[in-house]
Design a protein that fits this description.
Blueprint lengths: L1 H15 L6 H20 L6 H25 L7 H27 L4 H23 L2
């Protein structure tokens, strides 16, 4: 397991070293690395995988949209500070609600232990990616 994680760190580092012109390909490669890591860490059965991935992809897309909105709401703009704070709280609540909804959907396909591992793996992957971006 640890050697796979080291390999993933190396792979991500190489991807980030590629020229910016290949940015969309880079994103696809990073996403592929994330999928590989999740598949490996969750140890999905052949029965679970085809049910899990459509749910995960839908969840990821919705989460990405909300976090994008959250980043935009935190940028200084024409809204008043109170309005920006309220919008931020609403969006954070949407993230919590989304996670609750999708946890229930995931638990119909994978075990609670696998769900916990999914969340742990996502955090680990994001930390590895950020460490690589920072040059750590």
């Amino acid at each position: 397991m640890k050697s796979f994680t080291r390999l993933m760190v190396l792979f991500i580092g190489l991807l980030l070293a590629l020229p910016a012109s290949a940015q969309s390909q880079d994103r696809q490669k990073i996403e592929s690395a994330k999928i590989g890591l999740i598949t490996n860490r969750l140890n999905l059965t052949p029965e679970q995988a085809p049910l899990f991935w459509p749910i995960y992809n839908e969840y990821s897309d919705k989460r990405r949209d909300i976090t994008r909105q959250l980043r935009q709401s935190n940028k200084p703009g024409g809204n008043s500070a109170i309005s920006e704070l309220n919008e931020s709280v609403v969006l954070k609540q949407k993230l919590v609600d989304l996670e609750k909804d999708y946890n229930a959907k995931f638990l119909k396909v994978i075990s609670a232990q696998q769900l916990q591992e999914l969340h742990n793996t996502e955090r680990m992957f994001n930390k590895m990616l950020m460490d690589q971006l920072r040059g750590n």
